[in-house]
Write a structure and sequence with these properties.
The complex is a heterodimer of chains A (248) and B (258).
Chain A: E1 3-13, E2 16-27, E3 31-35, H1 42-50, E4 56-64, E5 67-68, H2 74-80, E6 82-85, E7 92-96, H3 97-108, H4 114-127, E8 138-139, H5 145-159, E9 163-167, H6 175-191, E10 195-199, E11 213-218, E12 221-226, H7 229-237
Parallel strand pairs in A: 3-10, 3-11, 6-9, 9-10
Antiparallel strand pairs in A: 1-2, 1-4, 4-5, 7-8, 11-12
Chain B: E1 2-7, E2 10-15, E3 20-26, E4 34-40, E5 44-51, E6 54-62, E7 67-87, E8 92-112, E9 118-127, E10 130-139, E11 145-154, E12 159-168, E13 175-185, E14 192-199, E15 204-213, H1 217-224, H2 230-242, H3 247-257
Helix pairs in contact in B: 1-2, 2-3
The chains are: A alpha/beta (248), B mainly beta (258).
Chain lengths: 248, 258
């Protein structure tokens, strides 16, 4: 059982406050969806949890299994089991997917063995309908939006995190790919003692990854939490409906 | 396939397919400098390996309609080399050049003499001291093409300068001129890129890009978010930046960052 706990978190960038008194607790076996309009701090939240130096944590704390992670480097957080599937993954010329993942997996596993690694990598490429030749191509270079998102999920499955953040993983995916990615994530989630924090604008991803909790963010803080029925209400009423915090 | 080794001013032709003509001569004005002349008669590849202190003038001629590749690796302490390349009509020369360098001052002069002559110049360097590379490209004829790509990593006490000048004279039409220069500094020493495009003709396509600095923080964050330490992330990025199709080059890179 793992727990990520965010308490009274204030975050700013260039003196502009993005998150204000933000609170959230996520346990293993739970799927939380964060929803809200553009530019209100959804992606900021995932990057702060992952340790991006772009943001300044002014107040509050984030713990994972009761350990303060704000003092840890990004790679240390990743090795604890945190994973962020990014909205816009970096393109890195000259670094092949194989080299990158070999370095990443071997940094987590003391007893790294190349042959099982290659077999598992190839199986994951097959599962996501990706051409195995892409294993040897430069990381995300020349990939379509959908291929980049699938590549993020391959990394997830190889690195076996316990806390998964999905930042708009649905953008760039066509209907069939979205279903496939959703099923692969849920397959991993069910087989592992993990938790999911996902960020999305649209209901369609939630058809495959069904959240236990839905949180609406406005102006850097959670203004409404509920179960998956909240998603339908958002679709019908829009985010403005919840802005004053009084509507049910 | 041809292989030439230059070591302590001695030049050895280890392997040849007889599609090139190699000649040697002392410099009449400066006896300490050796002249190496290579004439490429038909499509072929030449590997040139440099080792240790060298003072050398190299003249390479690529004859009409010939497509040639020169792979050059320099692992040396101090060298002073001047290369002159002359390309005749419809010829294409691809130069893949790699230097693992302490101190170098080098001048490459590329003369696109014949119509539709093309040069692809791919240069990579690891700089551990003061390294200056001067590259002059003369478009002497119509529809000639030059694509110059320079990549350098400055380490230890290294600093690096790329002076790249491309010249198109008035009346020389239909040329394509491209320069792409990038230097990654792993230290705080001053590196320089001086890209110069001297174009005296309107019917020319010319562009250049230049970058000096560190790797992007977003890329380092991305790699770290997968559990890779910052040091390993930078090593991975340098290996990617310098990665080459030549395995011998990759072996040298791995010695530093593998």
């Amino acid at each position: 059982m793992h727990t990520l706990k965010i308490e009274h978190l204030d975050v700013s960038i260039n003196d502009k406050k993005i998150l204000k008194d933000f609170n959230l607790t996520i346990n293993s076996g739970e799927i939380h969806a964060i929803m809200g309009p553009n530019g209100i701090g959804k992606s900021t939240l995932t990057k702060v949890i992952m340790g991006s130096s772009d943001y300044k944590v002014e107040k509050g704390k984030i713990t994972y299994d009761n350990k303060d992670i704000l003092s840890l480097k990004t790679d240390e957080r990743a090795r604890m089991g945190l994973f962020l599937a990014m909205q816009s993954p970096s393109e890195i010329e000259g670094v092949s997917n194989a080299d990158f993942l070999k370095t990443a997996v071997s940094s987590k596993e003391d007893n790294f063995k190349l042959l099982p690694f290659i077999k598992e990598l190839e199986a994951n490429y097959n599962n996501l309908n990706m051409d195995k030749q892409m294993i040897h191509r430069s990381l995300n270079v020349g990939y379509s939006g959908g291929e980049k998102k699938k590549n993020e999920i391959i990394q997830l499955k190889m690195l076996k995190p316990s806390f998964i953040m999905l930042d708009e993983i649905d953008s760039g995916l066509d209907v069939d790919s979205l279903k496939l990615v959703g099923e692969q994530i849920m397959d991993y989630y069910k087989k592992n003692d993990s938790a999911i924090l996902l960020i999305t604008h649209y209901q369609r991803l939630l058809d495959y990854i069904k959240p236990d909790y839905v949180h609406i963010i406005s102006e850097g803080t959670v203004i409404k939490s509920g179960d998956s029925t909240l998603v339908q209400l958002i679709e019908e009423k829009g985010y403005d409906y919840f802005k004053d915090g009084t509507n049910e | 396939m041809n292989k030439i080794v230059v070591k302590n001013d001695q030049i050895e032709l280890l392997e040849t397919d007889d599609l090139i003509v190699v000649s040697l001569a002392g410099d009449e004005l400066n006896q300490a400098v050796t002249n190496l002349n290579i004439k490429i008669k038909q499509n072929t590849t030449i590997d040139i390996d440099y080792d240790n202190n060298t003072k050398l003038n190299v003249k390479i001629e690529v004859l009409e309609n010939v497509e040639a590749v020169i792979n050059e690796i320099k692992k040396e302490e101090n060298t002073k080399v001047q290369n002159k390349y002359y390309l005749e009509k419809n010829s294409t020369l691809t130069i893949n050049k790699f230097c693992d360098s302490l101190k170098t001052n080098e001048l490459d002069i590329i003369c696109l003499k014949g119509e539709k002559a093309s040069i692809n110049y791919n240069f990579k360097v690891i700089s551990k001291d003061t390294n200056i590379y001067n590259i002059m490209v003369y478009h002497f004829n119509h529809n000639t093409n030059s694509n110059i790509i320079n990549k350098g990593v400055s380490i230890l006490n290294g600093d690096l300068t790329f002076n790249v000048t491309s010249i198109v004279y008035k009346g020389i039409k239909g040329c394509n001129v491209s320069q792409n220069n990038r230097i990654i500094n792993t230290n705080d020493n001053l590196s320089r890129i001086n890209p110069v495009l001297l174009i005296d003709e309107e019917d020319v396509s010319a562009n250049h890009s230049a970058y000096i600095g560190k790797f992007k923080e977003d890329d380092i964050f991305y790699l770290q978010s997968r559990g890779i330490t910052k040091e390993d992330a930078i090593n991975l990025l340098i290996r990617g930046f310098l990665h080459d199709n030549n395995e011998e080059v990759n072996k040298i890179i791995d010695e530093y960052w593998g």
